């Protein structure tokens, strides 16, 4: 594995302790209603962590075999020595739908900080509903794991992570967010930057509806360093996303690595989102999600977010 980035190593790794990683499925979910159903699929526990430790949570939720257009949200909620809630989602389509969306994988990944010494417990929840008739079906499987317990923070030890506010942010021109602007400690040779963007077709809620049948936008992740001589920038990670009315929304993963030269310890990373065509789009931030199926209780979850991983090698 020589030469692989930290993020690549994390994805490739197979944790040794079952309590820190859990696979689930294939599991058939049937009787899916038109209201949101919340199903816990896997729970993991960290070892006892010191206060201030930054743990990396990584998960994959795969969905296929849908009998209708179904919502697939991969939400992770952590509690105990550190708390966090992050959700990403897409729609999975039935056999009559676009082939690229009949079998999908939704990745949810983020950092969670131990605010006091102890164990962090994280549960992966499937949030699903049918956009057509009640009683739909799908098959899900995947994994959730702690990929690391020692992600470095900035010079103050704070995890380099940020997200958009809860709710939705219209995208009608160009938006620069989220942004990380931090100093990293000396002694690291590289920084991996990860951004996950939730992009929604806007329906009739946005104006003007140039073409209500689709939304198209460009997303670019950039990372630069400064503070020394001949400081480096990472390769631009860029993608164009076309979301049709039935697909509704897309989880867009972005990733880049920047080399840290001597003295170049200031990191600036940002996602630039640009409207291209069709209906105005939305950038998502999870707001007032039901705690459990049928619950009156709600909570907010981070959605469009970004974090940085300093490392050597």
Describe this structure in words.
Strands 9, 10, 12, 15, 17, 18 and 19 form a seven-stranded antiparallel beta sheet that branches. A four-stranded antiparallel beta sheet has the order 1-8-3-6, with no helix packed on it. The chain has one helix at residues 6-12, and strands at 21-32, 37-45, 54-64, 70-80, 84-92, 104-113, 120-130, 136-148, 161-163, 167-171, 174-183, 190-201, 214-226, 237-244, 249-259, 266-278, 281-290, 298-301, 305-311. The protein is mainly beta and 313 residues long. It starts with 5 loop residues before the first helix and ends with a strand.
Quick rundown:
The protein is mainly β and 313 residues long.
Strand content: over 45%
**Structure summary, number of beta strands:** 19
- What is the rounded distance between the termini? 11 Å
Structural class category: mainly beta
- Which regions have little confidence, pLDDT < 50, spanning 5+ residues? 1-18
Inertia-based shape:
globular
Mean pLDDT: 91
Percent of residues in helical segments? under 10%
Which key terms come to mind for this protein?
313 residues; mainly beta; 7-stranded antiparallel sheet; 4-stranded antiparallel sheet
Could you give the topology of this structure?
Blueprint: H1 6-12, E1 21-32, E2 37-45, E3 54-64, E4 70-80, E5 84-92, E6 104-113, E7 120-130, E8 136-148, E9 161-163, E10 167-171, E11 174-183, E12 190-201, E13 214-226, E14 237-244, E15 249-259, E16 266-278, E17 281-290, E18 298-301, E19 305-311
Antiparallel strand pairs: 1-8, 2-7, 3-6, 3-8, 4-5, 4-7, 9-19, 10-17, 11-16, 12-15, 12-17, 12-19, 13-14, 13-16, 17-18
């Amino acid at each position: 594995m020589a030469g692989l980035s930290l993020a690549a190593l994390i994805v490739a790794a197979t944790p040794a302790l079952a309590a820190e990683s859990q696979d689930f499925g294939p599991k058939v979910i049937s009787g899916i209603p038109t209201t949101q159903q919340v199903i816990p699929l896997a729970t993991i526990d960290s070892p006892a962590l010191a206060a201030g430790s930054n743990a990396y949570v990584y998960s994959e939720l795969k969905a296929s075999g849908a009998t209708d257009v179904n919502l697939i949200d991969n939400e992770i909620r952590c509690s105990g020595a550190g708390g966090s809630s992050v959700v990403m989602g897409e729609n999975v389509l039935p056999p009559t739908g676009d082939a690229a969306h009949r079998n999908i994988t939704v990745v949810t990944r983020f950092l969670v900080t131990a605010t006091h010494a102890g164990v962090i417990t994280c549960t992966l929840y499937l949030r699903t509903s049918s956009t057509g008739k009640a009683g739909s079906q799908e098959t899900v499987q995947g994994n959730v794991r702690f990929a690391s317990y020692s992600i470095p923070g900035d010079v103050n030890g704070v995890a380099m992570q940020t997200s958009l506010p809860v709710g939705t942010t219209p995208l009608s021109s160009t938006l620069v967010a989220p942004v990380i602007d931090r100093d990293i400690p000396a002694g690291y040779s590289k920084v991996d930057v990860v951004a996950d963007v939730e992009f929604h077709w806007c329906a009739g809620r946005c104006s003007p509806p140039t073409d209500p049948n689709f939304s198209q936008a460009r997303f670019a992740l950039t990372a630069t360093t400064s503070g020394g001589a001949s400081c480096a920038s990472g390769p631009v990670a860029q993608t164009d996303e076309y979301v049709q009315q039935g697909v509704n929304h897309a989880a867009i993963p972005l990733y880049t690595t920047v080399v840290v030269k001597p003295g170049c310890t200031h990191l600036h990373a940002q996602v630039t989102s640009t409207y291209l065509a069709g209906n105005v789009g939305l950038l998502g931030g999870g707001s007032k999600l039901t705690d459990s199926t049928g619950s009156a209780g709600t909570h907010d979850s981070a959605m469009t977010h970004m974090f940085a991983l300093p490392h050597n090698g």
